[in-house]
Amino acid sequence: MLLSSHHAQRIVEDMYHIANYNLIFANEEGIIIASVDQSRIGDLHEGALEVLRTKRKVVIEHDGQYRGALTGITYPLFLYKRIVGVIGITGAEAEVGKIGEVVKRVVEMLVKEVYTERQRELEYTARESFVQDWLLQEQEDEQLCASRGLLLGIDVSLPRAAGIFEVIHNGSVFLAEPGGLQKQHSKSSIVKRVKELLPNAESDVIVPIGGSRYVVLFAVPDMTEWERKDYISGSILSLKEWLENELGSAVAAGVGQCGQGVAGVKQSYWEGEKAVYFSKKRTGSPATFYHDLRLERLIYDLQPASRKEYVRSILQLDRLPDPQQALETLRLLFKHNHSITEVAQELHIHKNTVQYRLNKIRDLTGFDPRTFEDAAVLHLAVVLHSLEEEDRP
């Protein structure tokens, strides 16, 4: 039966409290799955079997006329002309006959609602599974992937930009736990609401991936990357703000460049992965677009051990008398495009003091931050060091 025993039992009990009628539900095998008298649950109801056989109501004139049956009327329940179960009302025909047809119609409507909701859930699960396979698995047959997508209403040939929204909780990635935040916000309800906020709801695709991420595949027009960024920026910010308000946690957003076809959109997703990684490290940043990443593109692919070794060998922090002061001076030098005056103003010190610090860095590291080549080496080391610090628990 399409109605679960849990839902059936609730209907039985509600009907009893409202109209004081005893009802039983029987499944397509004639087994009682819900009853006010719960001792009857699991019993075979031969009156229900007769209803299933004839597809018509059966009047039971006295207890025991059919094994497992009490006096009353049993009705077939139909869904799209198919019999899906039986409902029985206990009582004399003269007493329950008038209300019986009404109860039958109400229950059939409830069964239809449950069936429709279940179909939506199945479609939702199928779409989620397909998109995860598309983005995370190797696709040996792109035509098969495209056909599977079309069956689910997803056109994989459209140009798309992948946006990744990652929920952050207390400064760390939020992972759903039993009884935690996600229990109050089902993924399907969030997906449904977010879908309503998308600029092109018919073509855009949203699915959850893991316990802390939602991925949106934005269908974008044929335009330049900068124009695409402007086109979806408003939606990115709206979705990020809505998720933060709904879930009560910060959300990092990263967006890949536009890709087309099975492989192109997958590439956009992995670019979004890199973008959201750096978005999590930029406090207060509304979103990070892969198109805007420069050094970060190379940094992301470096192994942690390689990053650490580069920082150690270039900055040689153990040789500097005040490592934090040196790092801050370098960071501001690169921030202000090598303007000694602006660095001095922000640090509230004399320009000569800035020059002294830079000379000290040159003497102890062997790299002069005032020359282009050495500045590039030091800049990369400073960026890697800041990432290393942020990654520490």
TrEMBL record:
The lineage of its organism: Bacteria, Bacillati, Bacillota, Bacilli, Bacillales. InterPro entries: CdaR-like_regulators, CdaR_GGDEF, Diacid_rec, PucR_C-HTH_dom, PucR_C-HTH_sf. PANTHER family: CARBOHYDRATE DIACID REGULATOR. Residues 142-275 form the CdaR GGDEF-like domain. Residues 327-382 form the PucR C-terminal helix-turn-helix domain. Belongs to the CdaR family. This is Helix-turn-helix domain-containing protein. It comes from Ectobacillus ponti. Pfam families: Diacid_rec (PF05651), GGDEF_2 (PF17853), HTH_30 (PF13556). Residues 3-134 form the Putative sugar diacid recognition domain.
